[in-house]
Design a protein that fits this description.
Blueprint: H1 12-35, H2 47-70, H3 83-111, E1 118-120, E2 124-126, H4 134-167
Antiparallel strand pairs: 1-2
Helix pairs in contact: 1-2, 2-3, 3-4
Length: 179
């Protein structure tokens, strides 16, 4: 099992973290959009936010692990990438990393505003550690929503770039992150 990045490929650990985070972030955005329209009488009214928060905690934890492992050796940049493609890739990756950390933190801020803890699937609770004003809570809500919209655009650009390299340039960019 490949647990260390090499000059040619990402480690299995990095690949698993990448795909777990990607699937969960997309799922959380979809769940978030769906749950804001739930009526009080929906059977999902309490369960959907519970799941959204729990999976959000999971994404945050996975993101911290991925960022911690990012300092390890990384595969070399593809030689056929232009300087603009390399720059766009670096910017997109840093925005994705930033989103994986800041979007869950903003959710935590507005969820714990009332002093309520955030549960991780009823296995443990993350207590409300901050006391913030209503203004900060409202800012956190707005950030959470609009950063998620921005994240979708970044995901689309990231996936589009990988598909362009795979199908048009026919290079190994996408294959380095798949099995």
């Amino acid at each position: 099992m490949n647990t260390v990045n090499t000059k040619d490929a990402f480690s299995r650990t990095t690949k698993i973290l990448h795909w777990l985070i990607a699937i969960h972030m997309i799922g959380l955005i979809a769940l978030g959009w769906w749950m804001i329209d739930l009526s009080f009488y929906s059977s999902w009214y309490y369960l959907a936010p519970f799941l959204h928060k729990a999976f959000g905690v999971g994404v945050f934890a996975l993101g911290v692990v991925l960022l911690a492992t990012r300092s390890r050796k990384r595969p070399a940049a593809m030689e056929n990438h232009s300087r603009l493609e390399s720059l766009a890739s670096k910017i997109a990756h840093w925005l994705l990393f930033l989103s994986v950390i800041t979007i869950p933190i903003s959710g935590y801020i507005f969820t714990t505003f009332t002093g309520e803890a955030v549960s991780f699937f009823n296995l443990f609770d993350i207590p409300a550690l901050l006391s913030v004003s209503e203004t900060v809570r409202d800012w956190a809500i707005d950030f959470h929503i609009y950063a998620s919209y921005g994240l979708l655009a970044i995901i689309a650009a990231h996936a589009g770039g990988a598909l362009k390299h795979h199908f048009i340039d026919q290079d190994r960019t996408l294959r380095r992150m798949t099995w």
